[in-house]
Design a protein that fits this description.
- With about 270 residues, the chain is α+β, with helices and mostly antiparallel strands.
- It folds into three domains: about 50 residues, Uridine Diphospho-n-acetylenolpyruvylglucosamine Reductase, domain 2; about 110 residues, 2-Layer Sandwich (Uridine Diphospho-n-acetylenolpyruvylglucosamine Reductase, domain 3); about 80 residues, no CATH class.
- The strands form three sheets. A five-stranded antiparallel sheet has the order 4-5-8-6-7. The protein has a four-stranded antiparallel sheet with strand order 9-10-11-12. A three-stranded parallel sheet has the order 1-3-2, with helices on one face.
- The longest helix is centred in the last third of the chain and has 21 residues.
- It is globular, with a radius of gyration of 20 Å.
- The structure holds flavin-adenine dinucleotide.
- Flavin-adenine dinucleotide (FAD) binds next to β2, α2, α6, α7 and β8.
Amino acid sequence: MSPLDQSPNMLPPVRQLPPFRLFRPTTPAEAVGILGSEETPPICYAGGTDLCLSVHEGRSVSSLLSLNTLDGLRGAEARNGTLAIGALATLDELSTHDQVTAIPGLAEALGAIANVRIRFRATIGGNVMARRTAYEVPILLAALDARLVFESSVGRRELRAADIWTAGDLGRSLLTEIEIPLTEGLALDYDRTLRPWMTQAAATGGIERVAVGTRFLRPALLSGDPGESAESRFSGLPGEFNDVLLTRGYVTGTGAALLKRQRARLAKG
Ligand SMILES: Cc1cc2nc3c(=O)[nH]c(=O)nc-3n(C[C@H](O)[C@H](O)[C@H](O)COP(=O)(O)OP(=O)(O)OC[C@H]3O[C@@H](n4cnc5c(N)ncnc54)[C@H](O)[C@@H]3O)c2cc1C
């Protein structure tokens, strides 16, 4: 036995996984039908980058539903005043997509997540549906006031991206699309210089929206008149916004300082 095998932190190799059922639907409707009819809904599998991690963390898998065999749910297009992004679009694809680059700051933000190997596999939908506070796409989408579109056997449901944390069990729902309203002057600035402890997305276009992400807390969304001072924007931070390592006072002061820089960058264009 090698010393590594004796390490208590050693992760189990994938070959130790018990057998599981694999569904390979070819249309979103078929996928939704399977999610709605199986006694225990199979776990959706897109890029698999988070799913593998959660299995290593102890998540048990008795059946998987591959989304990779689905026709559609990729790419991005401007439609009815929104940018509609397919849930299966990869972060890499979106970081150079011409419809995404049309929103200043968004493609750059998506292209800064993880590393290129992960971005090739990781889907935008998987980043949201993993529902991990340390992940960045929900922070960007909250600042952009995005809507998440779900299909299930009981029909279509829309959810504000900022509300993904309180949406309850979504195990029988398929995230199909993400819609970003294309408001006049929409632009995003994403500051991840303090990652992993704190990141901040600020969006203009009508009202100003600031989404603050920390490692262990659900992102806080602060919005209002862009003319308000940065300090006043952060006075709206919820009282309970105390991360394990960052106090509310730290986030308030740092967030306001970051916001001033973000406003300056957004004003420069
Ligand atoms: C080494 C490494 C570094 C990383 N660094 C970063 C980083 O810097 N910033 C960051 O934000 N993230 C980071 N990540 C996380 C990565 O971005 C996510 O794992 C990825 O975006 C998830 O997408 P996926 O397609 O692989 O999802 P999967 O692993 O396939 O799925 C994730 C979860 O979402 C569910 N799901 C997926 N798609 C759908 C759908 N359409 N409908 C319903 N449910 C769905 C799955 O059932 C699963 O529970 C990193 C990951 C790794 C491994």
